[in-house]
Amino acid sequence: MNEETHVLQPKKIGGRIKKYLKEQKPYFVILLFIIASLFVFYFEMMFISIKPGEQGVLWRRFGGGTVVEKTYDEGLHIIWPFDKMYIYSIRKQKISDTIRVLTVNGLTIEIEYAVIYFPNYSLLPMLHQRVGPDYPSTIIFPEVRSVIRTVIGQNRPEDIYTAQKLIQARISALSKTRLESRFIDLDYVPIERISLPVKISDAIESKLAQQQLSEEYEFRLDVAGKEAERKKVEAVGISSYNTIIEKSIDQKILDWQGIVATRELATSNNAKVVVIGAGEKGLPLILGQ
Description:
alpha+beta; Tetrahydropterin Synthase, Chain A; 4 domains; four-stranded antiparallel β-sheet; three-stranded antiparallel β-sheet; 7 helices; 21% strand
């Protein structure tokens, strides 16, 4: 009897378990459905994919907030669902804007510019903690606008119109200094368009045209003066040369040169005609084909 009891007891336990599982099966299905739903819901919060050209900054709800000691490189990262990963692009980025500013004499002009920038990735946690993901509108635009107003406000319209590269370089240098202290690296600030009032623009262009004509006239005068100076020097040289020749040549040398020339002509195979020179010492010339 005891052996039969020991054999039947495991069977009874197994049967009870099966019966219990069968009775609780709907609840298990509901539980699995809830777990699967939670997994799907929190999947994107837990499995963070950081793409090329990006870096992540982790914020821990129960671990001191923003992690400033490190950034998270590209790849897959798993975090707790109650934490949050902020992803920043560390590639060069371009934003554009248009503002109206006053020149030194109170004239309003419109400037269209762009900003080429990228966050300092080594200080990215500090940027996130102190400024946040909207740093272009919070930091970049206000700082660059302030620099543009300052630089343009120190120049006249004609200076802005004719020296855009110098003004652009100054704006870029000042903006770079300001943004570096705010954890942002600036490449440069290109000025894409400067719009002056039509009358002012026409006046400046007319003034520039007159300046070009004046410079051209001055250039021609300079060339003419230099040419006159050259001819003067040349004439002095020729005069000096003739004076020296006159002093060094006498009648005997001329007679001798005539004899040499006559001898050379006489030995020529084509000498046919003899022309007698004039005067007592006229030398004969032998000519022909």
